[in-house]
Amino acid sequence: xxxxxxxxxxxxxxxxxxxxxxxxxxxxxxxxxxxxxxxxxxxxxxxxxxxxxxxxxxxxxxxxxxxxxxxxxxxxxxxxxxxxxxxxxxxxxxxxxxxxxxxxxxxxxxxxxxxxxxxxxxxxxxxxxxxxxxxxxxxxxxxxxxxxxxxxxxxxxxxxxxxxxxxxxxxxxxxxxxxxxxxxxxxxxxxxxxxxxxxxxxxxxxxxxxxxxxxxxxxxxxxxxxxxxxxxxxxxxxxxxxxxxxxxxxxxxxxxxxxxxxxxxxxxxxxxxxxxxxxxxxxxxxxxxxxxxxxxxxxxxxxxxxxxxxxxxxxxxxxxxxxxxxxxxxxxxxxxxxxxxxxxxxxxxxxxxxxxxxxxxxxxxxxxxxxxxxxxxxxxxxxxxxxxxxxxxxxxxxxxxxxxxxx
Length: 407
Ligand code: UD1
Ligand code: UDP
Hints:
Elements: E1 52-56, H1 59-74, E2 79-83, H2 94-100, E3 107-108, H3 116-134, E4 138-142, H4 146-157, E5 162-167, H5 177-188, E6 191-194, H6 197-205, E7 213-215, H7 219-226, H8 233-239, E8 246-249, H9 254-257, H10 260-274, E9 278-282, H11 288-293, E10 302-305, H12 310-318, E11 322-325, H13 328-337, E12 341-343, H14 352-355, E13 359-361, H15 367-375, H16 396-406
Parallel strand pairs: 1-2, 1-4, 2-3, 4-5, 5-6, 6-7, 8-9, 8-11, 9-10, 11-12, 12-13
The protein binds uridine-diphosphate-N-acetylglucosamine (UD1) and uridine-5'-diphosphate (UDP).
Residues 59-60, 63, 250, 252, 282, 307-308, 310, 313-314, 327-330, 333 line the site of uridine-5'-diphosphate.
């Protein structure tokens, strides 16, 4: 069944002429469009030379940037936010700005979707123009998406220092676009903020000078802990029809959703899970068509939703019996929430979520059996470990801001 999630879905799926994060309209057919041509930006104004410029573009970037921008604002540091427009649906972008207190972006480059080459090229052209006009003193990039690498490349060639938040993660799987993005971004960065000790080790092994690397904790967890009082299951239930108990699922990795044969197998496994317990799945736009074509909705206990806003999504996860996912961020969030997490991937760049959390890497054939064990009360993975990953304490944004402000 396809039930509707809260909020307006009118712009879902649009790839051109979409509303940008602050509601201004951008025409993606005409390349980069300045939202700043609209009335005065709400944050920071147009950059004067030397300020910090944050580059965000895709859903996980917003969750990571929010605490860093807030902590720098508290210190009175001059900064701007540039949205590349890699993600543009309200549910993939603007909702995070509304919910997480992120300032309205100073500009939305309106880059939108395309092949890797098309998207990366458009990102670089838009960002180069923007950096030349702004002359930032420092560019801050987040995570491992195409917007991250494009900004790193452009900044490095303009001799603008780059700070990378979430540096040093490695899946050692070069088939993942994110592994390419994160490794190259680290090579281009002057300041590298690591979220876990093994990330520091990877950077050292790759020859990154130790004085560039700072182990600061995880800003995504700052956002989680900073909003913990807002994850109200009853409020979510009043807006979204939810079964009493359920598995929450998300899938969007190319390896899982781009190949119809793989998709058909995963849908069959999810249906086997749904034979045992309801499955609630906010569907990422990347996999929507393939999953639908494979009959994902054709099980009475499959509940498909549009992508959820951050507060609703974490509320959904927190109240779930278990999570099935291939998301990077969700592996981290379930680690703190202590929700069993079955990650449909052969590797993870976030092993700390296994050693200090409730995460477990699985292949699809294991899913039904593992869910039945969970329903029988068995614990999986290291979820009995009492400690959380070091420095995942809600203060990573503060640490990053202190280091950046001192520069
Ligand atoms: C991107 C990141 C991935 C990250 C994910 C988070 C890269 C290479 N990948 O993957 O690391 O985990 O974001 O969600 O940067 N689409 C929409 N509306 C949107 C955005 C996308 O419909 O607002 C659809 C388009 O059909 C698009 C497809 O999703 O072609 C993929 O979008 P894209 O940004 O290229 O990659 P993601 O799969 O979202
Ligand atoms: N998320 C969300 N709504 C959803 C699915 C995910 O708000 O419907 C949040 C999730 O909590 C996490 C972030 O988006 O913080 C991660 O995004 P995603 O899984 O898309 O990317 P990844 O972390 O894999 O790069």
